[in-house]
Structures are given as structure tokens and as C-alpha cells.
Specification:
The longest helix has 40 residues. Helix 1 packs antiparallel against helix 11 and helix 9 packs parallel to helix 11. It is rod-shaped, with a radius of gyration of 49 Å. By secondary structure, it is an alpha/beta fold. The chain has 19 helices and 24 strands. Helices cover 43% and strands 19% of the residues. Strand 18 and strand 19 form a beta hairpin.
Amino acid sequence: MIAVLSTLLALLVGRSTAFKDFDRWTYDFTVDHAGLSAPSQQIVLIDFDEETFQRIQQYPIPRSIFADAISRIGAAKPRVIGLDLFLSEARTPSEDKSMQDALTSAGVVILASQTGFGALPAVKPLPQFCQPENPNAASGFCVEGTPGAMGYAFVNLPIDDDGFLRQANLFSAGSPPAESFPLMIAQQYAGESIKPGGSTYATFLGKKIPYANPDYKTIAIGSWSVEPAPSISAWKLLAGQVPPEMLADKIVLVGQSSDAARDTHFTPLFRLAGKDDVRLRMGGTAVQAAAIRTLLEGRAVKPAPYSVRVLSVLLASLLAALMLLRVNVGRVILRNCVLMAVWFGAALVLYARFRYWLPFLPTELSLAITLPLTLGVRFVQERIISRQAHAQREQMMRLFSSYVDPAVAETIWKRRDELSLGGEERVATVMFTDIRGFTALSANQPPATVLQWLNRYLTAMDEVIREHGGFLNKFIGDGLMIIFGLPLSQGEKVDARRAVEASVAMLERVEKLNQEPTGNPNSPHLRIGIGIHTGRLMAGSIGSAARQEYSVIGETVNLASRLESLNKPFHTEILMSAETRELVADVFPEIEPLGETKVAGLEEPVQVYTLRTRQDATLEVKR
């Protein structure tokens, strides 16, 4: 529930404009720190930069100067030339003629065009520079054998809502789709056409090119570099300072990055500081170079599908919730920060190695939301647990405080994890006691008198039982049911020893009661019988929904009761089973065997033992 709620909140916040802008910033951060490459070895950029503009001191730069640059480049035999400037307006006849001649002699020039979009007009090269095979197409080849360039392609670049360039077009919208400037140049250089793949990708040079936007057939540029291609100032080319081998068999792009040309853009690299800590704005031709590189290198970024993003956020939130609910509260924040760092690192690695973009900001936000939610749940849980513990303590103290010594009851609470109120099989020593001849003693006596001396006797027995760690489980008329080893055990031998010691102490206390003056000449002389047996039994909370008590059941209980009843025919005060005798023989060597006897409810005879006391001796003399 925490994970689902965190995910929903993160996705809801993710719909806001501010969040989207910040999410794009994290993409740029990833590009800057995990995705930059060295300059391309296949592309060279001839740049009419600020230095060239300062030397020419004229804008627009005369077309004849561009023609001179094209002629010099063509003479170096590049594989393809991309002219990233519009030749859509006529200049002087001499300038246009020099450009036409330069384009014709170079032979492998792709000119720039522009598709119309919204208020943006369509722009195509003048017919003297390219006679298109299909005049209605936004991109295409020029008629073979005519003067001018080899072809033309649109240079439009998709701009994100924040004004940054992060993608490149492959095709124009509409039918039939036209090839973009970087795609046409990459195909001419590679000698291979792009092939359609599935609905989410194309294939080029044997590699998948995933679409950033399948509807518009755009790709996310993945070959960013501060200098996507080696850049040569155009004035050096015009001055003859560029060796032909620097341009031979390569892609040569010609563009303008001077302030006057106004062809610089915000890209993911904008946040990297350039010279004199000035933010980097990249020329449009350099962006085209990065797009061409992306196609040739097969490094188009694959954005994670929306379903994967949602699952990623949900998985991270689930891991965080599971982890935070199980660790110490003091470590919760540290563990959450570690998980956030791991997810961030994983996103960087996925981009750096596989050009797979899994946005980490929604996940980080979800993890941040998970933390207070988890702490809130833990607080509520602890309050509930505290109340439950208080209720359990009250229940347990009600169950045991009247049965055992308060100190023992407190120990039971402290060791409550060892106790099962629901029922469990345990080994314990059970003791039954009974007043001999109680019916005859109470005959013809007022009930109040009987109750008075019976309470006096039971109080004394309760004190002895508590002193020896026994659990006074039941008052059965004038009889008692006592358990040693429940609800907590000190060990089978210790429990049995305490039971036998308590039985001796109870007889001694009865003797003292008989000798104490009561002010009532009719007070009876008491004698009791005790039966002890050790064995397995079921212990737990027994009763109805309205009233519960902790007790025991089983054959062990029945046998202990039967042993107590056998004291009369055996003329003894204490009878114990062989199981109890075996556990205490080393402490009470004076235990005597009385042989086997039949016990009601059992098929096999039972071996019984007694511990002789002074009262036993008196009874033997009388008998």
C-alpha cells in the first residue's frame, strides 16, 4: 500500500510542468556525466565562426566566399558534403554562378531545406542549385546531369518545451515522408539505406535505431560531445591552411556559428561551462553532426516505455517500504539515501553502457515520499503494538497474578515470548491435594465456620505454593490442582524437585495449622493427601469468549489426580509416579517404592512411590 501510494503521488507530481523541466535537467545531467564522446573521426565541420566573420567583416557573407569554400572542400575528395545554409534567395548573377559551379564540381553536396510547420515557411534551394526530381518533396535528389548539388534535405530540428534540442528528425511529417538532413548524409556516407523495423525502431548498418517519438519518427541524440566533430575555422580553409587529407573520404559539414548567423542552440551540454565559464550553446551544424554520428554509431538513446517507468517507480518504492519497515528507525534515512543513490547510479550506468534512458527523478521522488509514509505507518504500528502489548499484559496478569507470586507473574510477562496462550504441548509436574475426610469434618458444622477454617487452610497452602514457584491452577472444593513447570519452566528436574519440596512443606504447614490455637474448640484436625506425576500435557487458555483461564489437560493431569486418591488405601500422604521419582531420586534418596497398582482409566498397572514423613509414621503406628 505504501509503494502504490508513493508511486501514484510521484506520477501525479510528474505531470506538472516544473517537474517535467527538472526531469529534463536530470537527462541533461546524465548526458553530461555519462554520455560524452570524443570528437568523430568520420565528420569534419567547416565553421564560419566568429573569427571568420571578423576577418570577412561582411554579413551576409558573400555567396562567392561559400562557393570558394565548397570548391576547396570538393578538391579534397570527401565522401559527402553537407551545406547547412539556405540557398533559397538569389544574389548577384556572378555569386550565384560561382556557387552553381562549385556545387557542380564538388558533385556530392547535400543542400539544406526547411519543411513548413505552423508559422515556419517551407524553404527549398533555388532551381539553379538543385532541380528536384520531385518538386513537391521536402527532401530528395536533384535531377541527374543538371548543374548544382546532388540532393537536398530538411534541417528542421525538434525543440522540446523548454527550448532545448535533444532529438533529431529522421523523416518529415505527412506523406510521403521526406528524409532529414542528418539521415540523408548518413545514408550517402554509409552507402546503405535505413530500413523500417517495428513500430518503435528502424534499422541502419545492422543496428536498431529506437524512436524517441514513434509518431514523429524522431531519435534522441546519443553521440553528444563538446565538439561532436573536429571544427575548423572557415578562414583557415580559405587561406589554404587545411591539408586535403583532413577532409578526404569524410563527411564535411559547412555551417555558421557566428553571433550574426544566429544559429546556436540550447542542448544538454548547455549546463557545461565553456570558455570563461560561459554556458555552452552549440551551433546548429554541430547538432546535425551529433545526429549524424548517432546514426552511424548506432547510439540513439532508447527511452524506457511508460510502463517500464511506472514499474520501476513501483519496484523501488516496494523495496524501500519493505526495507524501511524492517530496519531500526535510526537507520531508515541512511538506508533510503543508499537506495536512492543506487537507483541514480543504475540510471547512469544504463545510459552510459546501453544508451537506455530510465528517468530516475520520478523514482527518487517516490523514494522520498516513501520515507515519511513508512515512518508514519511504523508510528501507527508501534502505537497499535503498544496498545496490544498493554492489553496482553493486562490479560496475562489477570490470568496469572492470582495464581502465582507477583514476582513470578512479572517474570512471566518479561518472558512472554516463551508462552503460548493458544495451546501447546509441554512437560510439567502436576500435583493434586485433598483434605482427608472433609465431608465428615464439615458435617453438622455451620457453613460460615466451615468456610472460615477452609479459607485459613487454603491461604496457608497458597503461601507455600508461591514460595516454591508453583502455579495454583484450581480450587476444587477442598482440593487443589498445582502445576510446576508452567507457564514457564526451569527445567524438568527442577520443576519436579520443587513439586516434591512443596509437598513436604505443605504437610509441615498443615501440622502447624493443627497446633495453632483458633479460639474454636471445634476446629478440625486436618490431614491431606498429595499426588504427583510428571509428563506431557496440553497447556493453554481455556474457556468461553467471555471468560478464559489458563489450565492444562491430558493423561498426566488425570494420573496425578488418581495418585492423590490412592493415598487412602496405601495409608500415605504423598504418592508419586515413577516419572517424577526418576527426576528427583538424587535429591530424595528416601523415596520408597510401593509396588504396582491399578489406576482407574489406565489399562496397565502403575508403579507408585512415596516419600515417608512423620505423619506417615504416626499413621502407620495407629494402623
